[in-house]
Amino acid sequence: MFRLALCQIGGSPDKEANIAKADRYIREAAANGAQVIALPEMWNCPYSNDYFRKFAEPADGRCVQFMSEIAKELNVYLIGGTIAELEDGKVYNTCFCFGREGELLGRHRKVHLFDVDVGVFRFMESDTLTAGDEVTVIDTEFCRIGVAICYDVRFPDLSMKMALQGAKLIVLPAAFNTTTGPAHWDKLMQVRAMDSQVYFAACAPAQVEDGIFKAYGNSCIADPWSEFIAHADEKECVLYGDIDLDYVDKIRGQLPLLKHRRPEIYREENK
């Protein structure tokens, strides 16, 4: 059993102000007993193609150093939400993950870019961002933790692969908007928890009045039976949930989905 905290915070066009806010909320979470703490997607800048490259920084930049240092200072695991990462002229939507000593445990670059047009809302991440191409599962003293980012949640194969690689918790920094959020947010988090038999934790930005991007908020933690054990509204907060690894084993034992898979039937060449 360990305590997970999701820091639902809203960003602004002021990077230093965003870092200061993240610092406050991470400290609050640690003071309340959280051993694993997560930040939301693009916590250090507005969620907009106009800002991604402007705010992008290399893997040894200001925000990564801040996250490493605070993880070490507070002796916590930090799933660092996402920032715009700059490498070789390309910009990635990247989650950096740190251990208790501030060491980098893993880095997930968003695999599925959000290029959609749902009528009232159109967004093309590929105008600015480059997609990653790796599954990310990190090791902690508690369990293996899978990391995905926002739109990645809509692709069940990714979560399943994390579960098959030993993940018992998946953390998803995610910035849904107020069109897709009310329609799909809760359903997606519950079904990913259920079909991969993991705790599934989605950490969203808070909704900021007059913000450039109107986030849905509603950070949540679903257990492997698909029940919410914690759920926020749209406001800034720290959301806590106790992750019971014995419960994961119990559900997987009672309903052994991972063992009953028949991947030879699912392969593309068998269609």
Layout of helices and strands:
Blueprint: E1 2-8, H1 15-31, E2 36-38, H2 49-55, H3 62-74, E3 77-79, E4 83-87, E5 90-98, E6 104-109, E7 115-117, E8 122-124, E9 136-139, E10 144-147, H4 156-164, E11 167-173, H5 180-196, E12 199-203, E13 220-222, E14 228-231, E15 237-243, H6 245-254, H7 257-260, H8 263-266
Parallel strand pairs: 1-2, 2-3, 10-11, 11-12
Antiparallel strand pairs: 1-15, 3-5, 4-5, 5-6, 7-8, 9-10, 12-13, 13-14
Helix pairs in contact: 1-3
Question: Can you describe what's shown?
Answer:
This protein has 271 residues and is α/β, with parallel strands linked by helices. It has a single domain (2-270), classed as Nitrilase/N-carbamoyl-D-aminoacid amidohydrolase. The chain has helices at residues 15-31, 49-55, 62-74, 156-164, 180-196, 245-254, 257-260, 263-266; strands at residues 2-8, 36-38, 77-79, 83-87, 90-98, 104-109, 115-117, 122-124, 136-139, 144-147, 167-173, 199-203, 220-222, 228-231, 237-243. Helix 1 (15-31) runs parallel beside helix 3. The N and C termini lie far apart (42 Å).
Which properties best describe this structure?
seven-stranded mixed β-sheet, 271 residues, 15 strands, 27% strand, Nitrilase/N-carbamoyl-D-aminoacid amidohydrolase, six-stranded mixed β-sheet, alpha/beta
Helical region count? 8
Largest sheet: 7 strands, mixed
Q: Say what oligomer this is.
A: single chain
Structurally, how many domains make up the residues?
Answer: 1
So, the CATH homologous superfamily? Carbon-nitrogen hydrolase
